[in-house]
Amino acid sequence: MLEELSLKLETALNKIRGQGKLTEKNIADSLREIRRVLLDADVNYKVAKEFIENVQIKALGKEVIVSITPGQLITKIIYDELTQLLGGTHNEIKINGSGITTILVVGLQGSGKTTFCAKLAKKLKDSNRKVLLAAADVYRPAAIEQLKILGEQIGVTVFSLEEKNARKVAADSLLFAQEKNFDTVIIDTAGRLHVDEEMMTEVADIKELVNPTESLFVVDSMTGQDAVNSAKAFNEIVIYDGIVLTKFDGDARGGAALSIRSVTGKPIKFISNGEKLNALETFYPERLASRILGKGDVVSLVEKAQESFDQLDAERLEEKLKKNKFDFDDFLKQIKAIKKMGSLTSLLGMIPGLNSQLKNAKVDDNALMKVEAIINSMTLLERSTPKILNGNRRKRIARGSGTTIQDVNRLVKQFGEMQKMIGRFSKSGFNDSFLNNIKIN
């Protein structure tokens, strides 16, 4: 989502970094351009104005003007101000130390609320919470069925009733959770097309009935300032604790992310950046500020890797690498682990400097699917002994995987080169950074 904003900010900052000496004039010119970049990104006008004023006050300080690296200092000032704009510090979701933790999820229709409930349930389940999903969206056709399907996919129980009474569903779900020893209940409420009195009364009643530990407002970040306005209006009627930004992997300009904290006064707690049920990130203002300025987010990348790679498998893989016995089966396991981490575009965005190098290049996630299909079409012997892959075998693999002989040849060639590289590492002392040298076309 933030690629275009990031590139434009980097262009503006490069101009000021290139100045031999900073003056009030070239600082003002650069900040005027940054202000235009923010407004183009659909950042709230008042928020953009206040942001630029804060940066200007600090940038005109004596320590910046006389610094030998003024461009770097201004970048640091902008990073600090962006971090503050996004909330300053990380706000963890509240979890009760004892008893049932109740999370009420509210929002407008079409914001991705039901899917978020399932993503949050999976995240909490992975943290050893016993989670119950409550289907209190009794109006939207197939909403309950959707939640049940998602619950089945992640192995989480879904509570629902036949009668269309959202208040009763919410209240009874807590009784059910208590009876069955669940420690967490996530209540999915009905979305609404706009802030209307009847629906607001219902969600306010539900909130009073269940007295939630945490109330989260889910907002579609693709809707820009409309998202900010609805979040503000909603909070004036039904006070919530935090915000969830969904569809963060879309092509919107990013204004909602930069404006919503300042306008509503509520912290962003999660960002959802994909369709997969593991595509949910805990929100850290400083990490997003770093990504916006093209500095990447290595911490989040490492955390995703730790979640996706099994420790025992990693140790087995290390032994095979040391003995130079890495085969296509091992390669397939690594691909599946990488896919669990999210889309390639989102992962590359976390690597410092890649945004500016790739610019608007499209990263094809289907490339990994193609590699998987080719490997899956190989026999066990072919996977473990790639050198037996003659012409006839490669033709059969291409037919079985729905790819071309050129695709198979390319993969086999690249895998052979990778094995040679691993062999060199094995002889000279292997280290864990070999994956950084693997290139998949």
Give your account of this protein's structure:
With 441 residues, the chain is α/β, with parallel strands linked by helices. It folds into 3 domains: 3-85, SRP54, nucleotide-binding domain (Four Helix Bundle (Hemerythrin (Met), subunit A), Up-down Bundle); 101-287, 3-Layer(aba) Sandwich (Rossmann fold), CATH 3.40.50; 302-437, 434 Repressor (Amino-terminal Domain) (Orthogonal Bundle). It is built from 21 helices and 8 strands. The chain has an 8-stranded mixed β-sheet with strand order 3-2-4-1-5-6-7-8, with helices on both faces. The longest helix is centred in the C-terminal third of the chain and has 24 residues, at 405-428. The two termini are 24 Å apart.
How many individual helices? Answer: 21
CATH H level, superfamily name of the largest domain: P-loop containing nucleotide triphosphate hydrolases
- Residue share in β-strands: 5-15%
The total beta strand count reads 8
